Amino acid sequence: MKESVKESHKLIKDGKQTEHSKAIKNSSRDINKNILNDRNDRSRSSLNSPVVWYETKKPFRWRPLAWRRKQWLLLLSLAIFVFLVNATLNHLDNSDPDNASDLDRDGDEKNFRLQHLHSHVPGMKEHKPRITTNDLTLNLSSSSSFSTSYFTENVSAAHNSHIPPPPTGYLVWSERCKMPNLDPYLPEMMRHFKREKYKPCHIETPLTRIEFNQTFGRYTLRINQELVKVYSKKKPLDCCYQTIERNSTGGRADCDVSLSECLSFRDRTPLASTIDNILVTCRANRKQIYRNGHPLMPERPDIRERLSAWKRYDKTHNRKKPPNVLMIGIDSISRINLIRAMPKTAQYLYDNEWFELSGYNKVEEILLNSSIKIDLLQIDDNTFPNLMAILTGLNKTTALKRCKPTVLHGLDNCNFIWHTFRKYGYVTAYAEDEASINTFNYLKVGFEQPPADYYLRPFLLSAEQHLQVKLKSNLIYCLGYQHSADYVYEYALELSRRYRNDTYFGLFWTNTFSHNAISDCTSMDGRMVEYLKRFADSGTLNDTIVIFFSDHGMRYGPTRKTNSGHLEERLPFIFLWLPQQLKQEYPSFVSALSTNKNRLTNPYDLHMTLKHILALTGRVKNKLDELAPSESCPRCQSLLKPVPYNRSCDDVAIEAHWCTCLHYQSIYKNSKTVVTLTHLLIDHINDYVENFQNKSFAKLCVPLTFDHVESAYRSQLELPDKQTDPNTYQDIYRILFYTKPNKALFEATAIYNSVTGYMKVTGEISRLNSYSHDSECVSDGGAKKYCSCHKKKIF
């Protein structure tokens, strides 16, 4: 039989098989099991007899394949089982009572548990902090009561409690505000996103360093002798330092600095207490081989006297040391981009009991229809109005009118919150990198007198002129041996070290690694975590309230045209840190911040929070004036109190153009209504430019004309008489449109009545693409983004 089969196989191979065997091969080429069962009978037959092939439903050659399929099914079933078990365990792990929207309380008990605040950043491993029993249980009887008439709650605590968290896909959910959440990794955003590695600014360690001697109250400048041979192997070093001095008066006081004569030193030299900043230069054989700068915080008699006087006041009135306040801000980072681009930083904040405010919405006010004098409309940036809301409680229009940032002495006479902190016994500091676009200097005069006790701007102005510079996205990313942002954060750390036993207030703002591109901040993720850990390890967080925040999301670039980009621009990140002692003394603060996580909040609320902190000191005497509600948002309140559940943008002075509570639906972009409305918006822009500053730019700019609509959205206003009175039939339209010439891209929000033809622009009309080359003929920011200059005639 075996020989017969071999011969048959040979015939098949040689193409000489019978017609029957050909048919069987073409159909399935199966070998029948019956051949094996009857092989003894067929073996008796003649070897020359033809080989008979039989068809079968279960071919022999499929048996190993069938076994492999069973193995795969078994493995798949096992994997599904493991996944379900893991998901169940995770659910049980997260379903503890700490996940409640408010702190769990028993009616007659005095103890409660801190809310579980940790969230998870996609792609990051969650590390839950170790919390001791003493941390979890706080004695309410030890807390002192705090009741002030000027901090009122619009909604009682009972009304705010037991409100369920927002449904999946939303940050805030109420009848009047439905703020959507976003997936950080949507393709429309990720196609423009690229993670970058951290790169140090210099491979060599700086040759010089400064040290503060607490006993003598002065700094010492030292040369690191171990590094001398690294910088100069054979030639001796000649080093000297220059003091950086700020011009004291005039319109250029905040822009010009000067250097003193270079004073030689060897190894080390003490620095006078009058020196704020120094520039160090070292030469070998008359060749400059090293240059670096060092900002200082020298001991000053006037500061020490002020702090000592308030310490005596606290001691006399048997009061504890008030909490310090650190405000650490990063420009142009939305809440979602913090998670996307800086996941290590976000996860660190979630894992270490920082309080997030997910519903924090930026603010800004319309200027096109403002009634104030037109010559004040020179500001075209989003940082200024959002920081002014925090620092003064004023909206953009009122701040421009009252603080006059384009006029000498204007900002000096402005009532910033840091002046109030300084008045009541705080040492103050302000630092911001990238001097050319500083919040109070970009298209503004700045301060004639230093706005705070310690002011970093003079040092950075000099450093940007004399140190080696490396650009990233057209901003000064590296400045000498450090990143520009490093100088700001080191300045904050120095403030916390120098005044460890005193009270201080500081604002520290960075632009250089985040302002111009959505991916730039990725390289500073790990670096930011290092600084946050250094604040914790140094003990700074033990008695300091820290506000870690941004002003808005990315305002320009390709991502801004997307729906995600629209929301991200309006929703910056914000986290608050409360010291453990303060949480024990005021457990209601913990409850309020936990509740406010998913409520609509804004910069005016943050302003009222700073006033609330001032009230805690017990030092403020004229409370009705100095701790009064925000002038531009009377209904805004401290974040250390539960904010109303059913807040709307109208309640808290957020224009519809910036409001993320509205539910928009995409509509046909070329509809008659949309095109008509777009033409009205273009006419509105042209009228504004023509009449700007008494028509001084009318002849320089070409009137804009309609090109096409990029996208259009509509949100219906809920008005009581909408069904009966056609005059109240108003909807909100959000339109992205291009104009001629030069393809200028704008976004506008308008209230429109299709019956009466009434239109009202809400908020400013935003320019979403670059206009630096389009409007070179105009230097004023108020008209620059709307102007397209006439082409120069070439003869």
TrEMBL record:
* Alphabetical UniProt keywords: Membrane, Transmembrane, Transmembrane helix
- Composition bias, Basic and acidic residues: 1-44
- Where are the coiled-coil regions? none
User: Pfam families, from UniProt?
Assistant: DUF229
Segment Disordered: which positions?
A: 1-46
Question: Which InterPro entries does the UniProt entry name for this protein?
Answer: Alkaline_phosphatase_core_sf (IPR017850), DUF229 (IPR004245)
Choose one Gene Ontology CC annotation of this protein and give it. extracellular space
Which positions, given as ranges, span the membrane? 72-89
Q: Which Gene3D superfamilies match?
A: Alkaline Phosphatase, subunit A
Q: Which domain of life is it from?
A: Eukaryota
Name by which UniProt lists this protein: Uncharacterized protein
Instruction: Tell me which species this is from.
Output: Glossina palpalis gambiensis
Upper classification of the organism:
Eukaryota, Metazoa, Ecdysozoa, Arthropoda, Hexapoda
